[in-house]
Design brief:
Pfam families: FCD, GntR
Largest sheet: 2 strands, antiparallel
Strand order of the largest sheet: 1-2
Keywords: DNA-binding, Transcription, Transcription regulation
Structural class: mainly alpha
Low-confidence stretches: 179-185
CATH topology of the largest domain: Four Helix Bundle (Hemerythrin (Met), subunit A)
Strand content: under 5%
Mean pLDDT: 81
CATH architecture of the largest domain: Up-down Bundle
Number of domains: 2
InterPro entries: GntR_C, TF_FadR/GntR_C, Tscrpt_reg_HTH_GntR, WH-like_DNA-bd_sf, WH_DNA-bd_sf
Number of strands: 2
Helix content: over 70%
Protein name: FadR/GntR family transcriptional regulator
Shape: elongated
Order of helices and strands: HHHEEHHHHHHH
Number of helices: 10
Radius of gyration: 22 Å
CATH class of the largest domain: Mainly Alpha
Distance between the termini: 44 Å
């Protein structure tokens, strides 16, 4: 049951309540959003406030509007909502450190599993990654993107679907954080070398070495962040 909300900027009434309806399961992905007139009555706000709220939700990717089909809840609305909440959570330095510490717990073990589970196709992907990252003509932005792709690749080779989903959901937000906190100052060449060494450990079926190298890789990133936030 929708409830009118008080004491908030008017357009946020629409944003917050729509998000609550989706998170509670009352509005499922693909469901049609009520019309402006109904939303105006429910939230007790003006049509302009409804439009601003819907516009904000569309920018966030929570809803989508198509000609002839009306406005609907996006298929990945929950992921978009969780991403938005996450970026608010990690917007301060201490939370970023905690997030990186969580990665230090998870990703070394993913490297360990990847080294044990990598098949020939996976090994070819690793070799391709090494070749691409060693490309001297690559633009700096491409190197940054490859750096993030590296962590996704390891999770996929480790064959852990939950880890893949977790890292996928964080891709956009972590990319922004990495650009600001790490790549603006860190030595990209050294960072790439660490990625290559981890790949080589996986290719050589050395899970302990792969795990230790990944741990050290993330630990160094944490130390860098502590010094620069």
């Amino acid at each position: 049951m929708l409830k009118p909300l008080k004491n908030q900027p008017l357009y946020q009434i629409v944003v917050h309540e729509v998000i609550n309806q989706i998170k509670s399961g009352n509005w499922e992905p693909g469901a049609k959003v009520p019309g402006e007139e109904e939303l105006c009555r429910t939230f007790e706000v003006s049509r302009n406030s409804v439009r601003e709220g819907l516009k904000s939700l569309q920018i966030l990717g929570v809803i989508e509007s198509r000609a002839g089909a009306g406005t609907k809840i996006s298929e990945d609305a929950l992921r978009k909502i969780h991403n938005t909440e996450l970026i608010n959570l990690i917007s301060d330095g201490s939370s970023i450190i905690e997030l990186m510490e969580l990665r230090m717990i998870i990703e070394p073990q993913l490297a360990f599993l990847a080294s044990k589970r990598a098949n020939e196709k996976d090994k070819e992907r690793l070799r391709d990654f090494i070749h691409n990252i060693e490309n001297k003509d690559a633009e700096e932005e491409q190197v940054k993107e490859k750096g993030f792709d590296f962590h996704m690749l390891i999770a996929e080779i480790a064959q852990n679907k939950f880890a893949v989903k977790l890292l996928t959901s964080l891709t956009e937000e972590l990319s922004i954080q990495r650009d600001f906190l790490i790549y603006n100052q860190v030595n990209l060449q050294d960072n790439s070398k660490e990625h290559i060494h981890i790949c080589e450990a996986i290719l050589n079926r050395n899970p302990e070495n792969a795990r230790d190298l990944m741990y050290n890789h993330i630990e160094q990133a944490i130390e860098f962040i502590k010094k620069n936030i």
